[in-house]
Amino acid sequence: MKMPLCSGNNLAGAEEGMSQAPEARPSPPSVYHERQRLELCAVHALNNVLQQQLFSQEAADEICKRPLSQLALPQVLGLILNLPSPVSLGLLSLPLRRRHWVALRQVDGIYYNLDSKLRAPEALGDEDGVRAFLAAALAQGLCEVLLVVTKEVEETGCWLHTS
Is 64 a residue of the active site? Predict the structure, then answer.
């Protein structure tokens, strides 16, 4: 059956010779999907993977702050932080923020900030020092922390003290 492309003009038969558009795919049944709001993509990703709204921004922030004392740092090879970073032109600081990745690692019992923007590694000290550094970074907001662990540590979950 032919349908006119435009009603009320001479283009009624213009679709002859044109290929048919593919049929629209049906929507998957009841797939939970949160759309991006503000800069909450980590929260949206968690909820989308879990297929329900389990996490809020506040809950995710609390989880990020609470495991600091529960991290089994000797089991962690290193940490990678994604932080807001100011933009400057010489001495002039611009009101823009970009994201910057920073590595933290323990070497010979001392934790270091291995930020590639530093002239040299910055000693953070022992576990208390690295926890203080992480707490300060998280307190600034918009900070993400990734743990780098071996496959064995990840599978057993021993990077976190449960008591």
Answer: no
